[in-house]
Amino acid sequence: MRSLLPLYQAITTVVVGDGQSTSFWHDIWLGEECLSEQFHLLQSHCKHTDQSVSDIVIGGLRRHLAPRVTTEALGELALVEALLSQVTLTATFDKRYSPFADHDGKLHTRDLYALLKSMSAPAGTTVSKFWSSCAPPRVQFFAWLLVHGQIQCKENLLKRRILMDSTCELCGGQPETTSHLILHCSFAASFWRSLGFDIPDDFEARDIHQLPRPASIAGSHFDTFVLLCCWHLWKRRNGITFRQESMSLRQTLQACKNEARLWSCRLPCGERNIAAHWCSLFSLAM
Ligand SMILES: [Zn+2]
Known about the structure:
Number of strands: 2
Low-confidence stretches: none
Number of helices: 14
Shape: globular
Number of domains: 2
Mean pLDDT: 85
Largest sheet: 2 strands, antiparallel
Radius of gyration: 19 Å
Strand content: under 5%
Bound molecules: zinc ion
Strand order of the largest sheet: 1-2
C-alpha cells in the first residue's frame, strides 16, 4: 500500500477542517498541486516532511527548517506564510475528494481499477509511457485523464449535465473539448507553434503520446516535455475559468520554464541537462 500512497495523494484533493489527517507537504489542499511541488526548495530545507496541516498551522513552519536556509528558500517561506495566514482550521474532519468518487464519497471502482491496471501495463504501451515519465504523480494522473477523455473540460461537464453550455471561455467560439482545449484552441495552437510543433487539425488529445516531435526538441524524455506543456495549458485554463486571471503566451512560456527547472531533479542523474535544453526552448519561444 505504501507504494500507492503518492498516487492516492495525487488523485485526491482535501478540503481541510481540523487539518489533522492531511499531510502538509504531500496532500493537495492549498492550490492545485501539493506544497512539496509548489515550494520544492523550501521543502528541501525541512528536517522532516511528515507534518499534518494542523501541526504547521498551529506550530508554524520555521521550527522544522534546517539551520541554514538559502535566500531563494526564504522567498518561498514568505509566500507559504502569507498563504497560511489565510487558513482557518475548524472543528470538522478533513474531507477528501477524488474524480473517482461521487459526492457522497462512494468510489467508482471500475475507473479506479482501469487506472491501477494501466500503471502495471507492459513497457512500451501507450499508458505505460506516462507512468514511466519523469512528471510528478499529479501530472501523470492528469495525463491518464487526458488520454481517457476524462478531464473536467466543459464538454464533459455538459455530458454529465453539470453545465448547460460548453462554449470555450478562452476563444468563445468552439465547444471546450479536451482536444480543443489542449491542442486546437487559438491560444493552445499558438503555444505549440511557438515551440516548433506542427499539429494536424484532426489530431486528438487521446493520441498525445504520438504527438509529432519537432527536430529542434531532444528525443529523450520527450513524453515528459509534452506533459509539462499540457499541464500548463490546463493550469492556465483553470486560472482564467476559476480565478479570472489573465496569462499571455510569454507568461505561460515563462511558467513552463520555471516548472522545467523544478522538474530537473526528477530526471535521472546524468540526464538533467535535458531540463536546461527545455528552458532554452521556452526562452527562444518567448
Ligand atoms: Zn477555445
